[in-house]
Amino acid sequence: MGSLPLVAIIGRPNVGKSTLFNRLTGTRRAIVGDEPGITRDRIYGEVEWQSRRFELVDTGGIVPDDEAVIPANIFKQAGFAIDKSEAIVWVVDARAGVTPLDEEIAVLLRNTSKPVFIAANKVESKKVEDEAGEFYRFGFELMPVSAEHGTGVGDLLDKLIEELDLSELAAVGDGELQKPARKRGRYAQLYLSDDFSDAPRDKDVDGVALANARASAISPTDTIHLAIIGRPNVGKSSLLNQLLGEERVIVSPIAGTTRDSIDTSLAADGRDFVLIDTAGIRRKGKTTEMTEKLSVIMARKALERADVAILIIDAVEGVTNLDANIAGYAVDSGCSVIIAVNKWDAIEEKVTNTIYQFEDKLRQQMKFLDWAPVVSISALTGQRVQKVLPLVAKAFDARNVRIPTAQLNKFFEDNISQPKGGTAPTTAKGAPAQLRVKYITQGGTRPPLFVLFTAGGNKGGLHFSYLRYVENRLRDEFEFFATPIRLKERRKAAASAR
Ligand code: GDP
Ligand code: GDP
Q: Would you say residue 280 lies in a domain?
């Protein structure tokens, strides 16, 4: 297999992997059969695009369509792709929507720092394309394609070439994580110093905009449901105890809606919280593996009911795969997320830079959470624990924000209707856009949802990167602290359309 960079196609059966493989490789397809170490369920080919070449492998080649072996096989595919490839194309069936197997794949793919592109396949109508937006929540770049008709495939190739270029330059050693040139998401604000305001929600960074916006929506009497999540031993119970002990305003424990968790209500700082205790399950007599599984199950359960999640990471051990799994569920849930790096007391020889270095690494491993702030704490000594609930309240307020129409219209005028250099909407096909965003409205809160109404252009719809631009501008303008933002495109059918 020469020295060409390798791109792996993965995905569940029947989504169109082989069709895409054939489309990408064209006549260059080369099946490598019986070489040692290469099993026959992987098919290799070469792709040439814009005078660049890479090698492509379809990891799901010849596998029986047997329900029982599918998950195991996907595990294998993903493992191979994560280990051996420079970039991953995850093919999904946009017509079928997100399936449980896709959820599993998403979890696996979050464990890699390698670039992952979702090829949302079988997009041959506007309706299906809208539905493909559902996959956006996995946090990877999404490209609507039709492997059968070839639409969107050029864009996908452009992206791959762009990505590989960088990894080629950087892949001197083992390649993994060595991607200095990669564009990273913009980091959310980092909280590390003790001079951080104790009442941040009264001093929002962007001041006026948020203050005005909030006035229309927030009722401070709302109870904030808070989940403390994380893998075993990161310090969930310790933080819970600290929070309760510190505030000393415990109302008695009340029964949770699930049997295994005890909710505790707590009034602090003029706000009402309900702490959903995911540490409720004790691990005595359980295996490590079982405890780990339980931590994920408990996190998912708690996230269902929570507004805000504190995701605890162990500062000493760093981010593990399990952390990333749990973080992924937090993103999917639509909760606001604050990342607490705990056991900060146990880090020896800290220098000013230490938290930045830690954060930098953490961000690489959890790219999909780039809007979540990081705070370093010690649940043991109580260091900075008093920062936590104010951050939670601030996150809660942000997710409830409803931007007044006048402000949103101004935002539209400034950022969308008169695009500045390079920020005009492009279609997914990359064709010169007659595509226009007509207006933007806020469709909901918790988390904030914005709808972009578009018209004109070809079938492509708004490009992922354009949505990203709008999201970033919204974040700059309105400071959706610690909160995911959902964007939706709604397309007005062209007059000529049937
Ligand atoms: P794989 O099992 O993931 O490799 O999927 P295949 O490539 O074998 O495709 C599964 C089915 O989906 C086949 O019937 C294909 O004809 C169909 N298919 C693949 N790509 C497309 C597409 O872009 N549009 C439509 N409508 N069908 C497709
Ligand atoms: P949980 O399983 O996530 O609920 O974790 P626990 O709260 O039970 O804590 C697991 C272990 O980590 C216990 O031995 C705690 O004493 C220890 N621990 C928790 N927080 C800290 C901290 O901030 N610093 C240090 N050094 N140890 C901590």
A: yes
* Of 15, 18, 19, best ligand 1 pocket probe by most atoms within 8 Å of the beta carbon: 19
pLDDT in tens, 420-468: 545 556 555 555 556 778 888 888 888 999 988 888 766 667 777 888 8
Residues 427 and 296 in one domain: no
Three-state helix/strand/coil letters over 361-402: HHHHHCHHHCCCCEEECCCCCCCCHHHHHHHHHHHHHHHCCC
Give the distance (Å) from ligand 2 centre to CA of residue 234. Answer: 6
- Of 167 and 438, the structure prediction assigns the larger pLDDT to 438
Structural domain containing residue 134: 6-170
Q: How many CA atoms lie within 13 A of 127 on its CB side?
A: 2
Give the DSSP letter of residue 143.
E
Nearest CA to ligand 2 atom 7: 235
Instruction: Give me the half-sphere count of Cα atoms (radius 13 Å) on the Cβ side of residue 289.
Output: 0
User: Do 76 and 104 sit in the same domain of this protein?
Assistant: yes
The number of angstroms, rounded, from the C-alpha of 469 to the middle of its chain's C-alpha atoms is: 16
- pLDDT tens, 387-426? 999 999 999 999 998 898 888 988 888 888 765 545 556 5
Is position 96 within any domain? yes
Distance separating alpha carbons of residues 101 and 342, to the nearest angstrom: 33
Q: What is the pLDDT of residues 339-373, one digit of tens each?
A: 999 999 998 877 767 788 888 899 988 888 989 99
CATH of residue 424's domain is: 3.30.300.20
Starting from the CA of residue 101, give the closest ligand: 1
Residues 148 and 205 placed together within one structural domain of the fold: no
- Do 148 and 210 lie in one domain? The reply is no
pLDDT of 264-300, one tens digit each? 778 888 888 888 865 444 444 456 777 787 788 888 8
Please tell me the number of the ligand nearest to residue 119's CA. 1
CA of 236 to the centre of ligand 2 (A): 7
In a domain, 498, yes or no: no
C-alpha 432 – ligand 1 centre gap (Å): 29
Same domain, 29 and 122: yes
